[in-house]
Amino acid sequence: MSEQAWPDPDGVSRATEAFRAAFDAAPEQVWASPGRVNLVGEHTDYNGGLALPIALPHRTFAAIAPRSDRTVRLVSGLDDGHRWEGTLDDIRPGGVSDWVAYCAGPAWALREDGVELSGFDLALASCVPTGAGLSSSAAVECAVALALTSLAGESTDDDAARARLAALCVRAENEVAGAPTGGMDQATSLRAKAGHALLLDCRDDSVEHVALDLEAAGLALLVVDTRVHHSLADGQYGRRRTTCETAAARLGVTQLGDLDSIDTENGRQTALARLDGEEARRARHVLTEIARVREVVDAARAQDWTRMGTAMDASHESLRVDYEVSCVELDVAVEAARAAGALGARMTGGGFGGSAIALVPLDLTEQVAGAVTAAARERGLREPAFHVAVPSASGERVA
Ligand code: GAF
């Protein structure tokens, strides 16, 4: 399998080296926060629904030192060593763009929430694949938010502090970076637990940790990065979100996820029947996907992997047909993985490129990866990259 996660000491030394090279001094602290892969519950977060992501072992490392003035200096190993220098006051919606918005945006959101910050020097190093739908942006935001909160002398230890930080990172992404995303990625990066999937209820922001030891069950979660770059700021994602909001307003609810509390299938169908065309299809995806999250949680608890795979397959169909966020590369990967012995497979993340996941018997991992590569070649598509996703820990101080 390609693209291994860096062990923490490697990430620490890469971020520390970048910091020394840029600022000719040692960082005071290094924090790391992970990317994520979502098992099921796609496009449900901004609809007030359920999602079931895991944190990846792939992390972004942020080496930081405070300054006594209001200057902020950033260096990103993520994009060929980009550098930026400005002041705390430059960091605001409309004041910064591109990678600087993701990297510095949390400073703005923290200050908006009353956290006193001084200037700072910061260097990033990351092994979270970018543009692969594995939340490289959230990993950056969360590593920086953790580091800044710590410099400000505030604790990030308990889940309430983590939930607040996740909300601030979402605010930074929405308002400074201009990507209208929900909160799943930041919640995973800050609130996940090793060995567990994170059951996230976006209606009240509560979380539950669901034990998930795939290896003990003789299984692996294979991530197929189609290497078709996906972006959440290109309009397609935002259009899906707006359609859902319009549909919810038409039905007189705040969010489509509110329909999930209608306690009979008949009642939910009656509500959906009041919508037409695209709105009806989008809403049907949201409601059926919330039900599939419960199905996958039950399957994980019962260790019923066939049932889990079936729900993953159904999720992909719903995203392909009703939500229309898949693409040929994802469909080809999913079909080839299933045909080569995966118990289930689906696109994961925002869609329009990025990654798919497949639940595969351990001894078939290479075979499934080979079949997916062969199918991509045969269709003239880019050769995918592969990772094995193991449910990993949320962000933490690593030096
Ligand atoms: C992206 C977004 F950032 C998340 O908030 C979520 O909506 C996801 O797409 C789709 O489930 O990762």
From TrEMBL:
Its EC number is 2.7.1.6. GO terms for cellular component: cytosol. It comes from the Bacteria. Gene3D superfamilies: 3.30.230.10, GHMP kinase, C-terminal domain. The keyword Nucleus does not apply. SUPFAM superfamilies: GHMP Kinase, C-terminal domain, Ribosomal protein S5 domain 2-like. GO terms for molecular function: ATP binding; galactokinase activity; metal ion binding. Keywords: ATP-binding, Carbohydrate metabolism, Cytoplasm, Galactose metabolism, Kinase, Magnesium, Metal-binding, Nucleotide-binding, Transferase. It holds the Pfam family GHMP_kinases_C. Residues 297-375 form the GHMP kinase C-terminal domain. This is Galactokinase. It comes from Mobilicoccus pelagius NBRC 104925.
